[in-house]
Design a protein that fits this description.
alpha/beta; globular; YgjP-like metallopeptidase domain-containing protein; Zincin-like; four-stranded mixed beta sheet; single chain
Length: 236
Amino acid sequence: MPMITIAGRNISYTINYKNRKTIQLKIIGADQLAVSAPPNTSLAELDRIIRTKAGWITKKMLYYRQLAANPVNASWHHGAALLFMGKPYTISIHLAAQHSLVELSEDVITVTTAGNTAAAVPGLLKAWYINQAAALLPGRTAEWSGKLGVQPNRIVIKEQQTRWGSCSSLGNINYNWRIIMAPASVIDYLVVHELCHLRVPNHSADFWRLVGAYLPDFKERRNWLKQNGALLSRPL
């Protein structure tokens, strides 16, 4: 695997030659880079391109190192911390012979798992998060729909690998269940964002003006999601 030194750090990178015209760089870890390049691109040319992006690479990799050091959402084990509605809660796991249950208290998410084994805890937590999202998001969508004068055709809450939400040409709105880990203000930003697509189906200046008309501080809310998105996306 090729390696390059940037700001005193050795960074390894993979190369995927594709039928494309430009070189694309993607950060995939604290010290690793993925490169997509046109066929026959030389290592010398790749080295040159990577060095022109040294500042961006250094900034992004610092973010991933800081993320790796953040214990929140890093584990589902007893005593770990998971986010819910923007607040970290301590996980408390109790083994029982019967009756699996997830309960929320002031500072704790208590998981009682049947069968005297902790193996079911990730699935129980995921199901609980999805249920919480299903309980909250339709109501928030209905409230903001009334303010915007729009009506989505259908609301779906599901796992999405690269998106927090989407709005189809049929008026269906999809939400990533993990957004329930974000603060209420950020959840509302996502709801307004997707509903605005029912009026402006793109990300033009008109779209952002519409979002700003209802959420003047939308940039702050959007930035929170950008800065913490990887934290929310950690696998259970």
